[in-house]
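Notes, p. 3: input format for complexes.
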Amino acid sequence: MSDRLVRILTGDGTLRAAAAVTTTLVGEICRRQGTDPTATVALGRLATGAVLLGSILKDRQRLALQIEANGPLQKLQAEVDAEGGVRASVRVPRCDLPPRDGRFDVAGAVGKAGFLHVVKDLGLREPYRGTVQLASSEIAEDLAWYLTTSEQIPSSVALGVLPGDAGGVAVAGGFLVQAMPGALPEELAAIEDRILALPPLGTMLRDGLSPEEILAKIFADIPFSLPTSTPLHFSCSCSRRQARAILMTLSAEERAAHGDAELTVTCEYCREIYSFTGAELGNCT
Ligand code: ZN
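Output follows (285 residues plus zinc ion):
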């Protein structure tokens, strides 16, 4: 199944939801980053979470999530645009943590003490920035905590990433349900009960459920709008020009110290390597 983000709104407009399958996308991100299985789960969850929080984006808007904490992964970032382009990175891609209670120790890899930053570039003069302390470091709960406390939209977030037995990613995806003003408490309670009664997300993804089918399981008899679907793909906005600009922030002396040797910049997201000769940087030799 190709990766997609699907959005719906309930008939009375009081609940909105998004579900995504991100298996290929997370596989590509983690291949580029060289992650071990625990880092794959952590980064896959953050990238999928960014896709879900980005379901509100339109036109040229962008959203970025960043987690900085005291675990071995140190820093994780994910960025999405309104066209389903996604990129993500992790500062230390291998943590070699043993499983905990039979599960990948994402909280241990991320670190218990740290912050989740959310930046939304909605095309206004200043991007919107929000920050919360990490709640559980399992990422889904942290995103729900951010949405509920910082944006004051009661939200439920589920993220599932299962690494493949031979490396890579077997399945990845998630869903987000949000209560809009006017949502009835009993309707919310019914949805929460239904989410709790669902099979584990990883199982639903492994069974090949589409985003629409996952949403249909959550909403069942509650009428909702025709789903809108956006294909997801890996997309990095880096460029040779940008890489050169980074090197040009070095002083002329620092650049000249390299003489004719090539200077390189590696994009932290896609890992593309940009090389420049001293002459290309205008060095005097
Ligand atoms: Zn790049």
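Residues 236, 238, 267, 269-270, 272 surround zinc ion (CB under 6 Å).
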